[in-house]
Amino acid sequence: MLSNLYPYNFKFKGKKLASIENFFQGIKFKDKKIQNYIFTYYGTQAVHIKAASNYNWKKTGIIYWQGKAIKRDSLEYDLLVDELYISAVQNPIYRAVLRNCDKPIIHSIGENEKKDTTFTRYEFEFELNCLKDFIQQKENGGINI
């Protein structure tokens, strides 16, 4: 249930996302209209839409958020992804799954290098483990917000 492909609905920067994965697929498109369209899909539906574009972000290392070019290997991109995952916690099911996870999250599927993917398996592990620890500490009285 922690997969980016799972259909969790939440809002991110004013956009309704049907899953976390559709963000990572949508940012591969320069066109905002197509990107917004992809945000309405989830999971593997979003993955398969990439056939609609001839833009190859891997050649340039540039992804797009609502028309703005962002280097994949940049602090700006990392902060955007941090905000994405923090926003996903709006979904009560997603938050509950993280809260109830009692082991470190390890993900063995996916690419290892940033140049090969919009989100590496290590970035995935980092985001989920940070959120899990934060939610658990907050609910156990260790963090006041």
How many domains? The number is: 1
Summarize the helix and strand pattern as letters. Answer: EEHHHHEEHHH
- Report the oligomer: single chain
Mean pLDDT across every amino acid position: 90
Number of helices: 7
Number of strands: 4
Helical/strand content category: mainly alpha
In this structure, how is the largest beta sheet organized? 2 strands, antiparallel
Rg, nearest Å: 15 Å
Measured between the Cα atoms of the first and last residue, the distance is: 26 Å
Principal-axes shape call: globular
Poorly predicted regions are none
Across the major sheet, the strand order is: 1-2
Structure report:
The protein is globular and about 50 Å long. α1 (20-26) runs antiparallel to α2 (32-38). The mean pLDDT is 90. With 145 residues, the protein is mainly alpha-helical. It has a two-stranded antiparallel sheet. β3 and β4 (68-71) form a beta hairpin. Helix content is 45%, strand content 10%. The chain has 7 helices and 4 strands. The longest helix is centred in the last third of the chain and has 19 residues, at 121-139. It has one domain (10-139).
Topology:
Layout: E1 10-12, E2 15-17, H1 20-26, H2 32-38, H3 43-48, H4 57-60, E3 62-65, E4 68-71, H5 75-88, H6 92-99, H7 121-139
Antiparallel strand pairs: 1-2, 3-4
